Amino acid sequence: MLNHTLPTPLDKLGASLSLESSARWARSPAKVCVVYVHGYGGRAVATWGEFPDLAMEQPEFAEVDLVFLGYESRSRTAAFNVGVLYRAVSILAEEAPAALKRVGGPEREEKFAYERIILVGHSLGGALVRDVAMSAKEMGKNWADKLHLALFAPAHLGANVIELVQMSLGFLKYIGPFKAIAQIKSPVLADLEKNSDYLKALMDKANRIGIHSTTQAKIVIHASDDKVVYHNTFFRDPPCVAYDKHSHTSCCKPVRASFQDPVNILAGVLL
Amino acid sequence: MNQGLEGAQLDEFRRANLAQVWNLYRGKKRMAELAPVAQMAANDRSRLLRHHETADIDSEIEIHYRQRLDKLLHLCGILEAGWCSGALAFPDPPIPAELDAILSLPEVCTYFQNTYPLAHMERFLERIHAKRVTPFYFEPTWFAALLRLDANIRDKKMVDLLLIVDGYWSGEINFRSLVAAVQQREVIIEAITTPRDLRSPLQLAIAGLEAFLLFCDDLQELLDRVESKKELQEAAFDLYRYWFLVRGEELKSILKKAIAALSDFNDDEAEARLLTPGAIDLLFARARDYTALPV
Predict the structure, then answer these.
(1) What b/e string do you get for A54-86 counting C-beta neighbours within 10 Å, with b at 16 or more?
(2) Which of A121, B86, B189, B217 is geometrically suited to a Cys-Cys bond with B138, CB 3.0 to 4.6 A?
(3) CA A42, CA A169: separation in Å to the nearest integer?
């Protein structure tokens, strides 16, 4: 906690993020930036439960910036949101000192740049960060080699969209399953159907790039009670880490003392 | 949590936080914007800061100055919560002379003490005048969560909703038309699945209502986190007391109508998911309970 600033809104970052987006900047120059991306109907920070608080108490995160991105998950296509997130990650990768100044973060030297950027995605966010990373690689960005992926219950092979809507926060969770599928016109739900054009294109990208940190996740976590996303392995990902007695939404929410696994496993990626 | 920390490190941490809060809430800018109010004749200032039932507040310049003053008073509440939670430094003097001068104007005092009473101002003034420097607690994580919560209430969709609830119009929309709209499930779903830059004023207000529902959840969680620390609960709740007490009935009734329009569950399923209108009642009732705490 003492190693990081208070939450800084990211409305002046320069990407069309939701206003819930915020960051906890390391007070000392950070080596690593961890970027969190929520799923369908999720929220920039609330999706991650106690993750920020617990992470900031761990010495491994002392020189790590924690950035929580929010986007319009219910009203835009996956491709549109990849564009929004790609812009945000590019800004962090290419012009961090100026970006920090704009949003009121701590001052960093003009030549400051992150050594590594870890993209952490939950559910739909897992597919989106994967796309962001591979797009950077295909665009020949030199910072693509700094990117790493940590995925919680990723929807990169598709999702049961009825369950997905039911899991979302806000008004949609009040709608019964039959009405949900009939009435929700979120364009991204078609993108997340199994074998959709979007998901096929995502796999094609991975095949074109081959094995690289943007195509092969460092960690993939699935929950035993998750009936929302498919658990099969994407491309050359490592075998998933299985969390017993956890659901699609609880697997990315650490709880003090009783469930610190998400923080600990991410700390391992920082090393 | 602070055991074993070097005092100097803790001081530095608090000083940096205080600077960040002043920057985040544009404290210097707000004080400069209110300089003309400080220079007005007392009669003019008194008229500017009148109760809205005395005479409607409809001139742009009046709304401008009143909104700036409200934001500055809100900053005072945030500072009070930060000091109470031990997250912010308490310098000497604790606030700049310009702010002290504005808060000392009799018409401004009447505004926040009588016309539109703000509970947090009493504790804030007591703290800065008595120079009560020792914080009660050390809960910087809680204060960080409060700042995140507070950022949400400044979101345009929430601002628009609250203006409508407060009796203003947004385009062609007023509270009555908003209530009628949220009784149609399709209208709600259409509003929240429309991209924000394409939303009509009605859709923006409905999105604001959803944001307010999430805000209630967040506030409740924030209060629960410090259940045994009443001063912290008050410091947070007092920032939003107006919406739960003065406008609570309107907000509660419109939220319940929206949820009733959306919900498909039978009673058992709804209760299991805490979705019933009764759960909303409980939230507001619990919020009201905090106002009964002694200040």
Answers:
(1) bbbbbebbbbbbbbbbbbbbbbbebebbbbbbb
(2) B86
(3) 6
Q: Is A45 on the interface with B (CB under 8 A)?
A: yes
The tens digit of pLDDT for each residue in A165-190 reads 878 888 888 887 656 666 677 889 99
In B, minimum Cα distance to A103 occurs at B24
Angle between helices B277-291 and B230-237 (to 10 degrees): 110
Contact A179 B185 (CB under 8 A): yes
Q: HSE of A127 in the Cβ direction (CA atoms, 13 Å)?
A: 30
Evaluate the omega torsion of the peptide bond into residue B277 and state whether it is cis, within 30 degrees of 0. no
CB under 8 Å to A237, separation ≥6 — which residues? A216, A217, A220
The alpha carbon of residue B113 is apart from the nearest alpha carbon of chain A, in Å, by 30
Task: Single out the residue of B99, B83, B77 nearest to residue B131, CA to CA.
Answer: B83
Residues A222, A240: contact at Cβ < 8 Å?
A: yes
Section A106-132 average pLDDT = 97
Q: Give A270's contacts (C-beta < 8 A, 6+ positions apart).
A: A32, A34, A60, A61, A64, A116, A118
Pairing between strand A64-69 and A22-24?
A: antiparallel
DSSP secondary structure of B3-25: TT--HHHHHHHHHHHHHHHHHHT
Give me the interface pTM, i.e. the ipTM: 0.92
CA distance B95 to A103: 24
Rounded-to-integer distance, Cα A121 and Cα A69, Å: 10
Look at B263 and A1 and tell me if their CB atoms are within 8 Å: no
Residue type for A10, please? L
Cβ distance B186 to A183 less than 8 Å, yes or no, reads yes
Tell me the one-letter amino acid at A227.
Answer: K
8 Å CB contact between A233 and A239? yes
Is a pLDDT exceeding 70 seen at residue B135?
no
B151, containing H or E segment: helix B140-153
Q: Is B186 on the interface with A (CB under 8 A)?
A: yes
Q: What sign does the dihedral A25-A26-A30-A36 (CA atoms) show?
A: negative
Dist. CA B74–CA B222, nearest whole Å: 18
Across the range B157-180, mean pLDDT stands at 93
Please name the amino acid found at residue B71.
K
Q: Report d(CA B272, CA B133) in Å as an integer.
A: 46
> Would you state the pLDDT for residue A80?
97
Report the gap between the CA of B44 and the closest CA in chain A (Å): 37
At B120, list the tokens.
Answer: 């947090």
